[in-house]
Design a protein that fits this description.
Layout (H helix, E strand, L loop, with lengths): L5 H7 L4 H16 L14 H11 L7
Length: about 60
């Protein structure tokens, strides 16, 4: 399983753990419902991990 550093994720969510959790959970639900993945990810990875990888890579951004 790939490791995504928390510091990198917090930078993308404007240093708010709350915003990070909300963003990742919404995106993970979208992926679980069949939305295409925005990053190259193994099919064995859980949607939550894929969502965190997308946030870390800058494909998903936090609103305000």
């Amino acid at each position: 399983m790939p490791h995504v550093p928390l510091e990198q994720l917090l930078d993308k969510s404007k240093n708010s753990v709350y915003k990070l959790v909300i963003l990742a959970s919404k995106r993970a639900l979208e992926i679980a419902e069949g939305q295409p993945k925005l990053v190259e990810a193994d099919s064995s990875l859980k949607p939550s991990m894929v969502a965190l990888m997308e946030i870390a890579s800058g494909k998903i951004k936090c609103a305000k």
